[in-house]
Amino acid sequence: MSTPAIQAALQQMQGLATQAAAAQPLKGGYVTTAVGQGGFGSELQASIQRINRLQKAADTKAMAFQAGEPNVELNDVMVDMQKASVAFQMGLQVRNRLVTAYRDVMNMQV
């Protein structure tokens, strides 16, 4: 998957997290996403930020390896790249499930 595609998916996930964090008016009341101390939106946002940090760390380590820095080993680069890839794929699947659930709810007959 290319970097622009990854960035586009991350931006879409961040937009969904922002929408989930906001309270939505519902016939005189408000729907909140609070669960325990934190809310669903804040947890989603934190997950997206963790995925982004993993990808940036992997990219930084790969660039350091390519530059020939002596303390960067190929196996460390590969492990970090794989961690970032798995985290992104997990985030992408969560996003897909959230979008599907949202569409299912919106298509329900009331």
TrEMBL record:
Membrane-crossing segments per the record: none
Give GO cellular component annotations, separated by semicolons.
Answer: bacterial-type flagellum basal body
Compartment(s) where it occurs, according to its Swiss-Prot or TrEMBL record: Bacterial flagellum basal body
| Species classification | Bacteria, Pseudomonadati, Pseudomonadota, Gammaproteobacteria, Oceanospirillales
Supply the alphabetized keyword list: Bacterial flagellum, Cell projection, Cilium, Flagellum
Q: Which gene encodes it?
A: fliE
**What is the name attached to this protein's record?**
Flagellar hook-basal body complex protein FliE
Listed under GO biological process in this entry are: bacterial-type flagellum-dependent cell motility
Q: Which GO terms describe its molecular function?
A: cytoskeletal motor activity; structural molecule activity
- Entries under Pfam families matching the protein: FliE
